[in-house]
Design a protein that fits this description.
The chain has 379 residues and is mainly alpha-helical. It is built from 14 helices and 4 strands. A hairpin with a 5-residue loop joins strand 3 and strand 4.
């Protein structure tokens, strides 16, 4: 079999799109690559500490989901701010000359970032915790005679049985509408293009192919381990968990503030379950995992766009920095045109798992690629 098609030992690789760049996380380090104004690609290592290295139980299944989400948010936010700094987007003269600039000095952007994070968390609580519950109480009161909406909640409403389902669907609608609205912004659209480049480059590596622009562009931009899929999967899981809690503790339907508090408290559980399902989808490709991954893959039609070649170059640069050198497949130019797509590679893996013998045509192509590679190396 050709070197480019050898099956590599699976390692953990993931990333995040930035402003004109990509952050890539490998098994040993995290690197951000940014396309600078002069066209050069700037690479910077990002120091990262994992709490599971000190507290082993933080790496256990379910628990590791919320831990990894918090750590990813922290490192991702830092990388995003650094990319803005490299592009010169953070230091406007009018802001520096304002009283805020004089008070906080060089720490102004950090201060504004904290304020933005607090406001973002508050907005998330309102949109995904309070609003769905209030809308359910409103609709429930409309279909239930002699029942009014109150802050305490409803008792004996006609739709009580569907409270978890109703709120979950509302949260999914809010999430999809929000993401779709951001995709209309030109700067965010370019970020989504970098998101697509990140996915394509990881797919190219996982397929055991040389990391070239041509090979990466042939891959799919929809990846089952994407953070977008994780968030959407969390919302789907919340429907099942919330509905189960309401069946076990029906009194929660009647007290709005208590129910909202419970929903906040079960967030770590939802993160853990969603994380384990995403890992499962990344490791296995069967009917069950495809069903689980389907909503997230559909959502990526919004959050990822087909990248330009220069964006793919940034993705490749960041990925090569975090991969062990022995896992980077060399890229003879003569092999590019005959390299299979990720879908073709996936079909080969499914055939191997099913115990099927490889076709003679596949063997002949692999043999031809090997011969070409040997001739290239001799030259």
């Amino acid at each position: 079999m050709s070197k480019c098609c050898e099956k590599k030992k699976p390692i953990s690789v993931g990333g995040q799109a930035l402003l004109e760049g990509i952050m890539m996380k490998g098994p040993q380090k995290t690197v951000m690559a940014t396309r600078m104004a002069d066209g050069q690609i700037d690479l910077e290592d990002l120091p990262e500490k994992h709490i599971k290295d000190k507290i082993k139980c933080m790496g256990w299944p379910i628990i590791r989901g919320s831990v990894n989400m918090v750590e990813s948010f922290i490192i991702g936010y830092k990388a995003l701010m650094k990319s803005a700094e490299k592009l010169g987007l953070e230091e406007e003269e009018d802001v520096k000359d304002s009283w805020l600039g004089r008070v906080f000095g060089d720490k102004l952007m950090s201060f504004l970032g904290v304020i933005a994070s607090v406001l973002g968390v508050g907005l998330a609580v309102v949109l995904f915790m309070l609003l769905p519950t209030y809308l359910f109480n409103l609709v429930n009161s409309l279909v239930t005679p002699d029942v009014a909406v109150t802050l305490k909640g409803l008792e004996g409403g006609s739709l009580d049985l569907y409270k978890g389902l109703f709120e979950g669907v509302v949260k999914i609608i809010i999430f999809v509408c929000y993401v779709a609205a951001t995709a209309l912004m030109s700067d965010i659209k370019r970020t989504y293009m970098y998101h697509g480049a990140e996915h394509k480059s990881i797919f190219c590596f996982e397929a055991g192919l040389p990391l070239t622009v041509e090979n990466v562009q042939k891959q799919s931009r929809f990846h089952p381990r994407c953070g977008t899929s994780f968030l959407l999967l969390m919302l789907v899981v919340s429907i099942l968990v919330s509905s189960s809690l309401l069946l076990i503790f029906p009194a929660l339907k009647q007290i709005t503030w208590l129910w909202v508090t419970v929903k906040i408290l079960i967030l770590p559980l939802l993160c853990g379950l969603g994380y384990e399902l995403i890992r499962l989808c990344g490791k296995h490709n069967n009917l069950f995992t495809r069903i689980i991954a389907a909503p997230g893959l559909w959502m990526q039609r919004i959050t990822t766009k087909e990248p330009e070649d220069d964006m793919v170059e940034v993705a490749i640069a960041s990925l090569k920095e975090v991969l062990p050198p022995e896992l980077i497949v060399p890229a003879p130019e003569d092999l590019v045109s005959d390299i299979p797509t990720y879908e073709e590679y996936l079909e080969e893996q499914q055939a191997e798992e099913a115990g099927e013998e490889p076709q003679e045509q596949t063997e002949e192509i692999a043999s031809e690629k090997t011969d070409v590679a040997e001739e290239t190396n001799e030259e």
